[in-house]
Amino acid sequence: MLKKHFFIVDDDPIAIMILKKLLIKCDFNITPLSFKNGEEALDHFKNNYSSSNQYIVFLDINMPIMNGWEFLNSLETFTTPNTTRVFLVTSSVDETDKIRANQSPFVSRFLSKPLSVATLDELIKVN
Predict the structure, then answer these.
(1) Over residues 100-110, mean pLDDT
(2) Given this model, what pLDDT does residue 58 score?
(3) Residues 6+ apart with CB under 8 A from 73
């Protein structure tokens, strides 16, 4: 069985705190790593990636230094959609963001903030 690693990539510390609490409330025995921009997450990911593990990333789109789109593009250089699933969690209501998300093989779902326990339960059971 693949070991699952959870990442939260978001520049909003409150959004990170809420998502961590929701994951705990959903009874997942996980401690997600959190990063405040895509560059920090990418550096960690590249240095610790193993194709024998499964990675689940909750990714914000609009962040400083490296945004969500740049992070997604960088994933393609060293991982595959088979090992890395991304959930875009954003406050964006821009339809072009949804279209762009649907074109990425890494993006499993485009989700609006804030997430709920029911949404997380559904996501984790399916994935």
Answers:
(1) 92
(2) 94
(3) none
- Mean pLDDT over all residues of the chain? 88
- Please report the pLDDT score of residue 1 as a whole number: 62
**Residues contacting residue 25 through CB under 8 Å, at least 6 positions apart:** 117
Q: Find the length of the chain.
A: 127
Write the pLDDT tens digit of every residue in 16-50.
Answer: 998 888 887 776 667 789 999 999 999 999 999 99
Q: 3-state secondary structure string, the chain?
A: CCEEEEEEECCCHHHHHHHHHHHHHCCCCCCCEEECCHHHHHHHHHHHCCCCEEEEEEECCCCCCCCHHHHHHHHCCCCCCCCEEEEEEECCCCHHHHHHHHHCCCEEEEEECCCCHHHHHHHHHHC
What's the rounded Cα separation, in Å, for the pair 70 and 74? 6
